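Private note to self, pasted from the team thread so I don't lose it. Backbone tokens:
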């Protein structure tokens, strides 16, 4: 069938925001940022280029991901440290906050718990905004570079893509076989990565990240967290990924603990309040 006579009218219908964020429980950013000023570092992990590492961030602590030595993006997974079946839900986070995250946005967990896992409290790349190509930083649209897509596209057998890096790191951390760890790896927050969709074909694109050494993204841990971060083989993702061609650099993760009482009456959010019946009698 061809284009209908009222095609222009149909295209001109104004969009409606699916999930107005004004109705979400709002984080107390002033409380978090004030408590952060007195927090003391308790741990740090340096993630090697083209590798991944794990870290713990207890509820009520802060953690920071920093670019060091050179421009580098990272693929970030997050789990409930007490129950790894509860993990970061990038799709719902995207539906709530948009394609790219910044200060005040939260990383939400999977069903049935669906609660905030971490809240972004500082972003040194917040100035970037949305560029002329529709690109921005810290996306929740890319899934993570993986060996399966690489094999489909080029026939490659590349083992240091972010999916594989995270699989190895989680398996080693839990001391389980990699075949058991792999299903727990999930879609990521692409920290520092600059991405968007082309306006003509709607394809996912990447471009050189604006990140520079010293730039960071900082979070407040709403629940006990286990984090996994991969220093992507794409480096700053200016040309390609899933290969050893790009210049790559480490990423630093630091964990900070605020003083007792600094968070006032704050308490870790409980599981989602839906009753779970799904209409069954």
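Design output:
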């Amino acid at each position: 069938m061809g284009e209908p006579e009222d095609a222009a009218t149909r295209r001109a219908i104004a969009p409606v925001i699916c999930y107005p964020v004004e109705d979400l429980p709002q984080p107390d950013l002033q409380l978090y940022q004030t408590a952060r000023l007195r927090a003391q570092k308790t741990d740090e992990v340096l993630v090697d280029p083209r590798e991944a590492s794990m870290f713990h961030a207890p509820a009520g602590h802060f953690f920071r991901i920093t670019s060091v030595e050179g421009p580098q993006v990272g693929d970030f997974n997050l789990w409930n440290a007490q129950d790894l079946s509860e993990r970061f839900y990038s799709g719902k986070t995207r539906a709530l906050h948009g394609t790219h995250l910044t200060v005040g946005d939260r990383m939400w967990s999977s069903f049935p718990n669906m609660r905030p896992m971490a809240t972004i409290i500082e972003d040194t790349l917040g100035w970037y905004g949305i560029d002329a190509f529709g690109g921005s930083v810290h996306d929740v649209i890319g899934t993570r570079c993986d060996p399966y897509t690489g094999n489909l596209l080029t026939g490659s057998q590349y083992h240091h893509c972010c999916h594989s890096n995270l699989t190895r790191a989680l398996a080693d951390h839990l001391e389980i076989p990699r075949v058991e760890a792999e299903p727990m790896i999930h879609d990521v927050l692409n920290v520092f990565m600059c991405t968007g969709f082309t306006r003509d074909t709607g394809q996912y694109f990447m471009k050189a990240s604006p990140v520079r050494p010293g730039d960071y993204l900082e979070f407040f841990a709403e629940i006990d967290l286990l984090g996994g971060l991969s220093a992507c083989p794409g480096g700053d993702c200016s040309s390609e990924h899933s290969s050893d061609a790009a210049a790559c650099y480490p990423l630093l993760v630091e964990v900070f603990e605020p003083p007792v009482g600094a968070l006032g009456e704050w308490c870790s959010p409980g599981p989602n309040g839906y009753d779970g019946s799904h209409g069954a009698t």
